[in-house]
Amino acid sequence: MRASPDKHACPQGIDVSNYQRNIDWTNVVNNGISFVYIKATEGTSYISPSFRSQYIGATNAGLIRGGYHFARPDKSDGATQANFFLAHGGGWSADGMTLPGALDIEYNPHGAKCYGLTPSEMVTWIRDFSNTYKAATGRYPVIYTTRDWWSTCTGNTTSFANDNPLWIADWSPTLRALPGGWTHASFWQYADSGPNPGDADLWNGDMDGLRAMALGF
């Protein structure tokens, strides 16, 4: 993996949610997309009504795919939300097509930016989610976040850098400094729009590495 990925050399991906409906997955593949993360759940009660059709469509198109959970630490503990995610599309299997589930943890769109938690409490919440997911699947979840949120709401903890792959949101021409002790980002969300539906992402490596990620190597 590269410290500063080349947007033109790395496998391209997208991430989508219920905001992107009726996706033409064949066109997505023809546009050069290799993988997709699809929103499955949020908090303890929301299940994306588009998840199933999006997941099946991506699968039928031959894309490597995975689900993500939008964290709501103000709603429950981390274990409860990990189990909710696992029950509604967030699982993983070593089939070569399924990415480990991702925890989308970022500023609260509904209130206090750190969901009313102290940095120490937030670290505990994330660890609770991560360990629960690992116990169920054998894989640590990918963590999606931003540099600013991680620094503000976890105190820039380095507790997850050794186990959890990083998916960094950094909408810039080149990847900037990473938070939390991570030495590289596995995935980079580099734009919030592009020629394909959803946000634009890349895998920091080659296709063999992406397939290995899906297989659990």
Tell me briefly what this model is.
This protein has 217 residues and is α/β, with parallel strands linked by helices. The protein is built from six helices and nine strands; from the N terminus they run βαββαβαβαβαβββα.
Written description of the protein model:
This protein is of the alpha/beta class. It is 29% helix and 21% strand. The protein has 6 helices and 9 strands, in the order βαββαβαβαβαβββα. The mean pLDDT is 96.
Keyphrases for this structure?
single chain; alpha/beta; 8-stranded mixed β-barrel; 9 strands; globular
Largest sheet: 8 strands, mixed, barrel
Radius of gyration: 16 Å
Low-confidence stretches: none
Give the overall silhouette.
globular
- What order do the helices and strands follow? EHEEHEHEHEHEEEH
Q: Helix coverage percent of residues?
A: 25-40%
Number of strands: 9
Q: How is the largest sheet built, in terms of strand order?
A: 1-2-4-5-6-7-8-9
The overall pLDDT average reads 96
Our measurement of the CA-to-CA distance between the termini, rounded to an integer number of angstroms, reads: 14 Å
Fraction of residues in β-strands: 15-25%
Number of helices: 6
